[in-house]
Amino acid sequence: MQGVGDKIMPIKVPKQLPARSILEKENIFLMDTERATTQDIRPLNILILNLMPEKEKTETQLLRLLSNSPLQVHVDFIHTASYQSKNVTESHLEQFYRTFGDVKNNRYDGMIITGAPIEHLAFEEVVYWNEITEIMDWSKDHVTSVLHICWGAQAALYHHYGIEKETRPHKLSGIFNHELIVPTAKLVRGINDEFLAPHSRNTDIAYDSIKDNENLIALDKSDDAGPFLILSKDEKHIMITGHIEYDAITLAEEYQRDKNKGLDIHMPTGYFPENNPNKAPLNRWRSQAYLIFSNWLNYYVYQETPFKWD
Q: Which residue of 10, 11, 72, 256 has the fewest CB atoms within a 10 Å radius of its CB?
């Protein structure tokens, strides 16, 4: 583990990664060196395929949630080789990222596939679709559990289970209420029977398409936003249709971005206090986010992954 003074993070990330200094200032959980070196466990190896355009923001959001656990976690970031984001410097990618070709001989305890702003395209029209499907197929034998977020969830549902996304007449953006329908699932232990979750997408996954698939379970329902948490019955795949990792201001930044582009965009639902975009929004989904990630790390990764891969 790399030191931060006389303390270290339970997540092993490069010392120069910008997200690290941000999280340290937030007093994110740190573990002292003596405790880390005497724990009779090995770090969990987590691979993050970051498809979001503003990669540094997504790194910080995901690492923050992964840090809320006594488990030691080593994180590798990869980006697509067939497409390079225009919103991140080449030096950042070279310093902190690898490609699938660099890690395909490795085995990982867990993997996260993020969202991507490409919902308007059919899956097969996405420039890097073949690369994504190769990675998803590879994960079946090389990763214990995979967490898919937003477009990553839609891609997994389509590729693994043949479920197509449905285009919405208007973008779904805002904070929506969800009701648990499988409260005994390990993923939602500690979460209230009703909880709030952020969504930002132009497409939907129909609840009936999940209900009718014998390999999937929808853990919640929402009249406005559809299912948020979807679990494969073999517990290999977890699909999150929204953005539980978002910061309080992320939807506001997206709303302003789309307005500046002249798009016909609605104000995010249930987000700004008194529906006033001049008032700072509050994070009302933080506890759910931490619980979902810690439950995933514990029950679906740590409890299931082999101590030594064959």
A: 256
pLDDT(217) > 80: yes
107 annotated as a binding-site residue: no
Instruction: Give per-residue pLDDT as tens, 101-115.
Output: 999 999 999 999 999
201 labelled ligand-binding: no
Token readout for 304 is 């299931």
Q: How many residues does the chain have?
A: 310
Q: Tell me the pairing of strands 7-8 and 31-32.
A: antiparallel
Q: Is 20 annotated as a binding residue?
A: no
pLDDT tens, residue by residue, 138-166? 999 999 999 999 999 999 999 999 999 99
Provide, rounded to the nearest whole percent, the portion of the chain with pLDDT above 90: 74
CATH, range 7-302: 3.40.50.880
Which tokens go with 72?
Answer: 């030691």
Catalytic residues: 150, 243, 245
User: 12-57, pLDDT tens digit by residue?
Assistant: 667 777 777 776 777 554 444 444 455 556 789 999 999 999 999 9
Residue ranges of domains in the chain: 7-302
Burial grade of 46 (CB within 10 A; 0-12, 13-18, 19 or more): buried
Based on its alpha-carbon atoms, the radius of gyration of the chain, rounded to whole angstroms, reads 19
- The dihedrals phi and psi of 192, each to the nearest 5 degrees, come to -65, 160
Report long-range pairs for 286-291 (Cβ below 8 Å, ≥24 apart).
Answer: 288/191, 288/195, 288/196, 288/197, 288/244, 289/65, 289/244, 289/245, 290/65, 290/68, 291/188, 291/189, 291/190, 291/191
